[in-house]
Specification:
Layout (H helix, E strand, L loop, with lengths): L8 E6 L5 H13 L4 E6 L8 H8 L15 H5 L3 E4 L13 E4 L10 H22 L1
Parallel strand pairs: 1-2, 1-3, 3-4
Amino acid sequence: MSDTAALPSVLFVCVHNAGRSQMAAAFLTHLAGDRVEVRSAGSAPADTVNLAVVQAMSEVGIDISAQVPKVLTAEAVQASDVVITMGCGDSCPVFPGKRYLDWQLPDPAGQGVGAVRPIRDEIEQRIRGLIDEIV
């Protein structure tokens, strides 16, 4: 069994865990592989991942159709080295010793795939930069 304590861990948080945080987690998993522990959650999770987000990600070869929005827990925050919020505001718990980043990104909720693509591409660029910093 490998020692996962040595891996940097990142938690992506948005309100519904149905769009931005799902895309970010998928890109980090896809691009960093097993070099990073990845979590995502929402302060008020939706029932399903946004279908336009699923479609936009499939266009770049990443299948997130099986993902399910998860509720944000204090334990998930405590277990993460870096917490990246995307519009969850004050509902994200803050713990000392964690690195917090707030990515201001448009919310893809209710948008078509055409509106989701630029959000997806911005997230991919931010993830590539994050990998350079933490891996």
